[in-house]
Structure formats: C-alpha cells, structure tokens
Design a protein that fits this description.
16 helices, five-stranded antiparallel beta sheet, alpha+beta, eight-stranded mixed beta sheet, 43% helix, 4 domains, 446 residues
C-alpha cells in the first residue's frame, strides 16, 4: 500500500484504505513517526459478520486491571497505561476503510527521536539480519556481539530496527524451532527403550510452555553404580556445545580407582539460566538416590554457584584453578610476564600449606606490586575459600583442582560431533565412548 498522509504528515478524516491490515499499518507507521505505540481497539460487525467499524488506540489507553485480589504480588510490573484517549476510527462500507474520527491528543510524553527505536511495534528482525545472526551464533559469536556488528554496519543501534533483547528472543525461538519434533521424539523413544531393557536406566526431559522438549539428562545403571563408588567428587563443565542445535553438552564426570575419568551422566541444556541449572541438579540428585557429592568442581559462574548451594547445601563448591589461570592471563597478563610475580601468584593459587601462609603471601603480592585497587584480584580474593586448597583441607576432593577432567571428555565428544549431527546420533556415539572407557577400566583391573 502506498502510504496515504496529508502534506503535513498528519492523518485526517476522509482518508481511505482497503483492508484491516492497511488500516493498522497506516496508523502504526504514523505512530512510529510521532513516537508512540498502538493497540487494536473495538471492532463492530453487522449481522453477516462483516466489519463496519474499527478502532485503533494509543498503547497507553485505559488502565491495567489488578486481578490479584487475594494475595500480595511478589513484585509489581511497571505501570505503562495512563488512560490516554488518542485514537483513530475507521468506518467500513463496500470494502473501503475510511477515517471517520481521529484524536491526536496524548496525555503523556511521546518518545523522542532517539528513543523511537525502542517502540515495540516498530521493532522487527528481518530475515536477512536473522540469517546473519544465526551464522554468527554457529561460529561461536554471542548474540550481543552480533547485534553490535549489525549496528556498526548500519550506522548505529538506532538504525538496526530491533534491540539486543529482540536478538536474544529471536535466537531462542530459532533454537526451539530447530529442535525438530522428529529428533526429539527419536531421543525420547531411545530412552524409553533403554529403560525397558534396564529398569535402573534414568532419564528426564524438561518441556517449555509449548510442550516442546528443551533440556535432557540421562544416565545408565553402570553410571549409578560408579557414582555409588566414586561419587564423592564430581566435575561439571558447560563449555562444549553441539553444533546442529547449539545445545550445551554438560557431562558429569568423576575419577575412579585407576585415576581415569568415569561418567556419572550427561545432559543437553538449551541455555545457562538459573532454571536450567536447578532442573539439571535436581534431576541428577534424584537419579542418584538423593546422595549429594562432597565436592563439586565448576568454572566460575555466579548463577551456577547459587544453584549448587540451593540443591546441594552440604556440598563444597570448588572453582577450577585452570580457568582462574586462564582468566589471569587476560586480567593481569602484564604482571604475569614478570617471573617473580608469576611465581608468587602460583604459590597463592596452589602452593601454600596453611591459611596463615596464604594470607601472608597474598598480602605481600598485593603490596609489593601495588595491586590494591585491582577489581579482578579483589573478586578472586573474596572467593578464596572456593579455589585455594588450604581452605578445604577437611573436605575430600580426590586431589582434583580443576574441571579439566570433564573438559577432556568434552574434547572427545567434540571430535565425534559433526556440523549436522542429530541428538540421537550424538547419544549413540556417547554410549560407544562409555563402552570404551569401561573397557579401559576392565583392562586396568586385570
């Protein structure tokens, strides 16, 4: 539809369009230019069901009804409606939609030009932009960076046509669409068949609000036996993603009596949210007869740390010193170039015998190299009880200091995963690798 406006850019009674969509787009485009959003209002039909009158209003029309009368809300959403009377009315006759009334007076401030990019109805992820973001996600580039890449290409965030939140929502929808029903059903059928063969086989799946499968966890009977024997310490890492759906592969790994990796189970996670971690840890605990580990090693993740304390309240949470050393190279790399500083930093990391020795070494390092205001080291120090061995001498840790055991397992899976591998094929490869690991243990026993 060729846009119909007056010479001054205003809408006036008597202007005509030829469908509900054209009427909506006419008023919506006008609203975006002015700085407000719209919503569909009343519609009247004749006895035959044909539209005779159609209203579109300002999005701030009316007031939100408080339906929570019996219990106090845990939180209140920001009130956005102001009872604004701005609106437009179309009368319809013989397929022609004619503006019969328009009120352009608003009782609230309109969005300034630089703010109009945030108006909801003006934001849309175009197919071309979506394809670019999906390609970048497949290459391991996070959503926020892909947004700013597009913003740079288009001359600024205000020209993109959507926000960072829209990027996350778009990619989340695509993930859900990509997790095809056929692949998910095949995985479900496989787990059901395994459970039929072995009643002690355990699996759990989480569904979203549309009854689509999102998160998965499973373990076989041997993993339960191994956990009963060696489950005092587990390593949990979420750095590896399967390629086809970009799901997170999260193996739960321990160490056996031959100092080899042993698998306690594996999960596919759609994201690294609080809800996903809680679901996984609760599923794992249920599968192991509610026996919690004594120590769990992870990388540094605030959300995960919170959920570990919630689901495993008596478990010692330790941070991976390998990740800390890697981050140190980024945060204090210039200091680590000094051999004396590096030696002292490594002593603090894993070379002290007592808490007193650690404190003295740390204070001396901070003072000698004038690092009192370094925010990363301050944060690291606040977490010292989770990474410095002298603070957990009373808790069994099998002398493990990092999550590299689970990461090395991830590397094995990465080698067997292809760009188009379906979930069910990945699970089959996982089962073959488990057999190889158990055969190696049998040989060690011999």
């Amino acid at each position: 539809m060729e846009e119909i406006v007056g010479e001054d850019g205003e809408l006036k009674p008597g202007m005509q369009v030829y469908s509900d969509d054209e009427a909506y787009n006419l008023y919506n485009n006008y609203a975006l230019r002015k700085g407000f959003s719209i919503r569909k209002g009343h519609i009247r039909r004749d006895a035959s069901g044909n539209v005779r009158l159609r209203e579109f209003t300002c999005a701030k029309e009316g007031f939100t009804r408080d339906q929570d009368t019996f219990e106090q809300k845990r939180y209140k959403k920001l009130e956005t409606r102001t009872g604004c009377k701005a609106m437009i009315v179309f009368t319809v006759a013989d397929g022609i939609w004619t503006i019969s009334h328009i009120n352009s007076e608003h009782n609230h401030d309109l969005a300034r030009p630089e703010e109009r990019q945030f108006l909801k109805l003006g934001r849309k992820v175009l197919e071309a932009h979506g394809n670019v973001m999906l390609s970048m996600l497949g290459a391991g580039i996070p959503p926020t960076k892909s947004f700013f890449y597009l913003a740079n290409e288009m001359g600024g965030p205000e020209n993109v046509g959507f926000t960072k939140k829209d990027v996350h929502n778009f990619l989340q929808r695509k993930k859900n669409e990509m997790l095809e029903a056929g692949d998910g059903q095949s995985l479900f059928n496989h787990f059901k068949r395994k459970q039929g063969e072995d009643p002690n086989f355990f699996y759990s799946m989480q569904l979203d609000q549309y009854s689509r499968m999102t998160n998965f966890f499973w373990r076989d009977n041997r993993s339960k036996f191994d956990y009963d024997c060696f489950g005092d310490v587990i390593c949990f890492d979420t750095t590896f993603r399967t390629n086809k759906y970009n799901l997170i592969c999260a193996p739960i790994v321990g160490v056996n009596h031959h100092w080899r990796n042993v698998m306690f189970g594996c999960a596919f996670l759609l994201d690294e949210t609080t809800e996903s971690f809680v679901w996984l840890f609760e599923s794992f605990l249920e599968s192991m007869g509610n026996k919690a580990p004594k120590t769990i090693f992870t990388d540094e993740d605030k959300a995960m740390a919170k959920e570990i304390g919630q689901v495993f309240p008596g478990t010692q949470h330790r941070l991976c010193t390998w990740h800390i050393s890697k981050n140190a190279g980024k945060r204090i790399g210039s200091y680590l170039a000094n051999p004396e500083f590096k030696k002292q930093f490594n002593k603090c990391l894993h070379g002290c015998s007592t808490e007193t020795e650690f404190q003295a070494s740390w204070d001396d390092m901070i003072s000698r190299y004038n690092l009192g205001g370094n925010s990363w080291l301050e944060k690291l120090y606040s977490l010292r009880e989770k990474w410095c061995p002298v603070f957990s001498l009373d808790t069994f840790s099998a002398k493990i200091r990092s999550t590299q055991r689970s990461e090395s397992t991830n590397n094995v899976f990465h080698q067997i995963s292809t760009h188009t591998m379906e979930l069910i094929k990945f699970v089959h490869h996982y089962e073959k690798k488990i057999e190889e690991m158990r055969l190696a243990e049998l040989e060690d026993d011999y």
